[in-house]
Amino acid sequence: MSELRLTTSDLPVPNKLAAAKGDMVQFQFFPENRSVTRNIFDARCEPLADRPNVMRVFLGLMPVKATNTAIPSYAIVIDATTSMWLYCSQAMHCQRGMLVVINEE
Questions:
Q1: Cα→Cα distances 50→19, 39, 54, 73, Å
Q2: pLDDT digit string (tens) for 23-75?
Q3: For the chain, how far is it from start to end, CA to CA, in angstroms?
Q4: Better-predicted residue by pLDDT, 1 or 101
Q5: How many CA atoms lie within 13 A of 1 on its CB side?
Q6: Which of 1, 63, 84, 92 shows a CA-CA span of 20 to 30 A to 75?
Q7: In Å, how far from its chain's centre is CA 46?
Q8: Between the CA of residue 62 and those of 20, 56, 75, what are the distances in Å?
């Protein structure tokens, strides 16, 4: 399983990831509030509109306190080897660079 960490730096680690169809990618949420939303390159900070045969990803707000002893996580199964762009929809996190691409083309 591949892991992406959403940390206090507003930059996911790593911010690019290669994954095969069927692989699981786990998002780990670190303080403060984070989310995961799928989008496209041309509209990086906007939610993905309904598209046939495209897996939607939208995880609501994951509030995480600095005092948490457990790290909240969320996993998705990769359904294709084409590019998948994801971002944090909390406040201005996306505009500050909290974006990740899986299988960048």
A1: 23, 11, 8, 25
A2: 998 888 887 788 888 888 888 888 877 766 777 788 888 888 888 888 888 88
A3: 21
A4: 101
A5: 13
A6: 92
A7: 13
A8: 27, 18, 13
d(CA 90, CA 96): 11
| Sequence-ordered alpha helix ranges (H) in 1-105 | none
DSSP lists the bridge partners of residue 17 as 102
Please, which residues have CB within 8 angstroms of residue 6's CB and are 6 or more apart in sequence?
12, 27, 28, 29, 30, 34, 36, 88, 98
The HSE-up count of residue 14 (CA atoms within 13 Å, CB side) is 11
Q: Among 54, 7, 47, which Cα is nearest to 27's?
A: 7
As a residue count, the chain comes to 105
Find the helix or strand (DSSP H, E) in which 84 lies: strand 84-87
Q: Which residues contact 23 (CB under 8 A, 6 or more apart)?
A: 1, 2, 77, 78
